[in-house]
Design brief:
By secondary structure, this protein is α/β, with parallel strands linked by helices. 25% of the residues lie in helices and 17% in strands. The protein has two domains: 315 residues, Glycosidases (TIM Barrel); 87 residues, Golgi alpha-mannosidase II (Immunoglobulin-like), CATH 2.60.40. Helix 5 packs parallel to helix 6 and helix 11 crosses helix 12. The structure holds alpha-D-glucopyranose.
């Protein structure tokens, strides 16, 4: 699946492990989910007030980039256009863009500059779907899907013309903003049951589009939603139960997740995941060879709302003392005990404790393989021992754990961090596959 010529350029992606997704556009003003136009079957006219009042006067991309960086994120992916068709950059192919709103300025150029200035990678999300373009054929997701008169009047829409527009805009985005590291196309839905008018590779002319993308930005990472293979898979709002593979080979992937279930700013939705849960999701991704792309939905004023900011702050607090178990780490061949996740980088094995056991934790397969153990957050030693295999249970003596186990001696007090991590220094020659 990976293109051999670009594999080296893609190393940053797995090394980074953690990125910020930003969904921002006209729907941020409605503040009730980015699909509001479709969900409420709004006409262009009914949606127009959001365009007429779009004026994010507090937009400060440098602040967004700093926030992402201090949360430990290494790349930012911004919506250049979502399904409503509104363009955040000054496209020469439409007037439905930020520069024609009261705000009057391009939103993408300053963000790209700010992201780079913080040393982060730049990614674009671009919607394949367009509920505003006059040639985009009405289908099962379109806001006017139930409007028979509208459907009859628009029956002659020419997909090819829309696709020309799509390609022209992608060309613009990939030529006018310097190096773009990442592209997230969204999405294909051809042949999915019940989804009439669904669109896929033939509609988007995906092979041609992807070839152009790679020509314009040879090092770019492209996702898998063009209905043809890309460079990484994109499980959305769920955590896979194991590393992901295609044709038996493990592949790069990235779980995209929201804080509260909505991508766009959703004022009355208070279903926020706790920072600790989000940290566990990040660790869970890395332990399975994936990344986490965590979303924020800035407001119509251009601010990342205080709740999201607090959540990112708490994640950043954990990352400051634990990022060593995240960056450049991946799955381990060792099997983690219950309620734990391992990540590994070379001879460092990181044990993440999702629950706090009493006093002892037995690590199967690690007897004689660990040189030293410490908490990651404060580098305090964790004592280890190998329990004699003949030891049997007695009133105050535990039975021997599974053969080959290393036993950790834990304090009663769980460290006051979102997820405690124990760093295990594997002895030379022991970082590879455990003995069968
Ligand atoms: C989707 C949704 C969407 C969101 C995206 C993020 O498929 O249509 O609103 O932008 O996934 O992955």
């Amino acid at each position: 699946m990976q293109h051999p010529s670009t594999a080296a350029d893609h190393a940053w992606f797995s090394e980074s492990r953690f990125g910020m997704f930003v969904h921002w556009g006209l729907y941020s003003l409605a503040a009730r989910h980015e699909w509001v136009k479709s969900r409420e079957r709004l006409t262009d006219e009914e949606y127009q007030p959001y365009f007429d009042h779009f004026d994010p006067d507090l937009y400060d991309p440098a602040q967004w980039a700093r926030l992402a960086k201090s949360a430990g994120m290494r790349y930012i992916v911004i919506t250049t256009k979502h399904h409503d068709g509104f363009c955040l950059w000054d496209s020469s192919h439409t007037d439905y863009k930020a520069t024609r709103t009261p705000y009057g300025k391009d939103l993408i150029a300053p963000l790209v500059g700010a992201v780079r200035a913080e040393g982060l990678r730049v990614g674009f999300y671009h919607s394949l779907i367009d509920w505003h373009h006059p040639e985009f054929p009405v289908d099962c997701h379109h806001p006017q899907r139930d409007d028979e008169a509208f459907k009859a009047a628009t029956a002659g829409r020419d997909m090819a013309k829309y696709t020309d527009y799509l390609h022209a805009q992608v060309r613009e985005l990939l030529t006018e903003y310097g190096t773009i590291d990442y592209l997230f196309f969204d999405f294909s839905y051809q042949g999915r049951p019940g989804r009439w008018g669904g669109k896929g590779a033939a509609d988007w002319r995906s092979p041609e589009l992807l070839a152009m993308v790679r020509r314009l930005q040879p090092g770019i990472m492209v996702n898998d939603r063009l209905d043809i293979p890309g460079d990484f898979l994109t499980p959305e709002q769920y955590q896979p139960s194991a590393p992901l593979s295609v044709d038996g080979r493990e592949v790069a992937w990235e779980a995209c997740q929201t804080i509260n279930g909505s991508w766009g700013y959703d004022r009355d939705n208070l279903d926020d995941k706790s920072p600790a849960l989000l940290v566990r999701m990040l660790i869970d991704s890395v332990a399975k060879g994936g990344n986490l792309l965590l979303n924020v939905g800035p407001t119509g004023r251009g601010l990342i709302d205080p709740r999201a900011e607090r959540t990112l702050g708490a994640i950043g607090t954990w990352m400051r003392s634990h990022s060593r178990s995240v960056y450049g780490c991946g799955p381990s061949d060792f099997t983690a005990p219950a309620d734990c996740r391992y990540t590994q980088r070379g001879d460092r094995l990181y044990l993440h404790l999702f629950a706090w056991p009493f006093a002892h934790l037995h690590l199967p397969g690690l007897a004689g393989r660990v040189e030293y153990a410490q908490f990651l957050h404060d580098a305090s030693e964790i004592r280890t021992r190998i329990i004699d295999q003949h030891q049997t249970a007695d009133t105050t003596t535990m039975a021997a754990p599974a053969p080959d186990s290393l036993t950790l001696e834990l304090p009663v007090q769980r460290p006051d961090v979102a997820v405690p991590v124990i760093e295990l220094f594997l002895s030379p020659g022991n970082s590879g596959n455990p003995a069968p």
